[in-house]
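Hey, sorry to bother you again with one of my protein questions. I've been puzzling over a protein and I'd love to understand its fold better. Take your time with it, there's no hurry, and the full record follows here:
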Amino acid sequence: MIQLTTAAKLQKAITKARAVKPFVRINCFGSNTVTNKETGATYSVECLKQGGRRFAYCSCKAGMRAIP
């Protein structure tokens, strides 16, 4: 799980994601399925807020290692 502590950290994650031009399917609020169009790999992405802090979880390698 990645804690999104600053706007810069969130922007960095968004920029990295956009670079691969993924296909995003919204499952419900805060829950998405993301497919990398180049590799066909599919990941689960969850965004949540706990105690005023924002977190994101992704089943990709970087998300599993908490690398934003």
Remarks:
- Residues 7-19 form the longest helix (13 residues).
- The mean pLDDT is 86.
- The two ends are 9 Å apart (CA to CA).
